[in-house]
Design goal:
Layout: H1 4-22, E1 27-31, E2 35-38, E3 43-50, E4 57-62, E5 71-75, E6 78-79, E7 86-91, E8 96-101, E9 110-117, E10 123-138, E11 145-149, E12 154-157, E13 160-163, E14 167-172, E15 185-186, E16 189-192, E17 201-208, E18 215-230, E19 235-238, E20 244-253, E21 257-262, E22 265-266, E23 273-281, E24 284-291, E25 300-308, E26 311-321, H2 333-342, H3 347-361
Parallel strand pairs: 2-10, 11-18, 19-26
Antiparallel strand pairs: 1-3, 3-8, 4-5, 4-9, 5-6, 7-8, 9-10, 10-13, 12-16, 14-15, 14-17, 17-18, 18-20, 20-24, 21-22, 21-25, 23-24, 25-26
């Protein structure tokens, strides 16, 4: 049996420990784990605090790189920020403070901190990171277009932001093979060595991270190269006193100057010749030399020559005399009138063809 003095001693010890327990420092017993969310979601962040009935509990959005920009959101069960997307709940039984953020936006990503203030200069804290999935956006420091010359080395750059970090790949228009080989190249920088005119065109930088439809940028690659001239035929024939068109095709960039030469002299528009030049597509130009009412001296070799800053190229075309009239360009009424006035022997054939064509269009009764 304990005597009275011993009982008083035990009571004093129990009273002491109860007093110590009542004065125990606050403890954050639970904090939400890292959250990865989508734009538009609603998110609950929870913080459970023990022994904090006499201490303020705050939710704060932290910017460690710039503490002066910290955003104090709530104190205990009261909101500090007047934003309808925020709400705060306190469950007394579990000692849990729940911060809810609705309609998540990109700017909501960051570190949220539960704080228990235990003095003017001291506090206990716990952090939770919130990551927001963001569709890719191709950065402004990515390549937009390039103009280079044959033989050069060119690097096309493409960078993208977003979360998760986007994967960048390159493709070519119409799924053509890339100069590096294959239809797809993965990486931020596509490097093309010893570039040729066949490498010109549109390249697609594609950034994808599984959020949304991804992002794409068209990168135009233009390659300057010396002209290359081709002809449909190396030789044309036509009868005397009839017109004939000589044609050549030029591939070049930048656009070339095109001239026609005969017997060492450059030809110009006059009563004997008419020159036409017209672009058919980027880097492609056609030229036609019409030889008008051919005379004997106009038979011979003609040269189509194209020139730009990177060089020149030329092709020869022969114009020879024939007995037959070639149509086109010697077609229609001009052929009929010429046949009557200049080639009497052709009149019956041409006249018969003309009459036959008239009867084919007359209505029958």
């Amino acid at each position: 049996m304990l005597d009275l003095s011993n009982m008083i001693f035990v009571f004093a010890i129990l009273t002491y420990w109860m007093s110590v327990d009542a004065q125990q420092n606050p403890v954050i017993s639970y904090i939400t784990k890292e959250r990865v969310v989508n734009i538009g979601d609603n998110v609950d962040l929870q913080c459970s605090v023990q022994y904090a009935s006499n201490y303020p509990v705050l939710w704060t959005k932290i910017k460690y790189e710039n503490p002066s920009s910290n955003l104090f959101i709530s104190k205990d069960s009261t909101l500090i920020v007047p934003d309808p997307r925020y709400s705060i709940r306190h469950d007394e039984a579990s000692k849990t403070y729940t911060l809810q953020i609705s309609k998540i936006q990109e700017m909501d990503a960051g570190i949220y901190q539960c704080q228990v203030l235990i003095g003017s200069t001291s506090k206990i804290t716990a952090d939770v990171s919130m990551l927001v999935r963001i569709p890719p956006v191709i950065s402004d420091n990515s390549t937009r277009s390039v103009i280079t010359s044959s033989g050069a080395t060119v690097s096309l750059h493409c960078y993208a932001s977003g979360f998760p970090i986007p994967r960048v790949s390159w493709r070519r228009e119409n799924n053509d093979l890339l100069p590096t080989g294959g239809a797809v190249y993965r990486g931020n920088v596509l490097t093309i060595h010893d570039i040729t005119k066949d490498d010109r065109g549109t390249y697609y930088c594609v950034a994808d991270n599984g959020v949304g439809r991804g992002a794409r940028r068209n990168v135009g690659l233009e390659v300057e190269f010396a002209p290359f001239v081709t002809v449909d035929r190396p030789r044309y024939g036509q009868a005397l006193q009839y017109d004939m068109d000589l044609q050549c095709h030029v591939e070049a960039f930048p656009s070339p100057s095109i001239i026609w030469v005969k017997d060492g002299y450059q030809l110009n528009d006059n009563q004997h010749y008419k020159i036409s030049i017209f672009a058919t597509a980027d880097e492609f130009t056609d030229s036609t030399l019409r030889v008008i009412s051919i005379e004997k001296k106009q038979y011979g070799n003609y040269t189509c020559k194209a020139i730009n800053k990177l060089g020149s190229h030329q092709m020869n075309i022969a114009l020879i005399e024939t007995v037959n009239v070639i149509c086109p360009p010697a077609c229609g009424l001009s052929l009929l009138s010429a046949a009557v006035s200049k080639e009497p022997s052709l009149f019956p054939v041409v006249f018969t063809m003309a009459v036959a064509s008239i009867f084919t269009i007359l209505p029958s009764y």
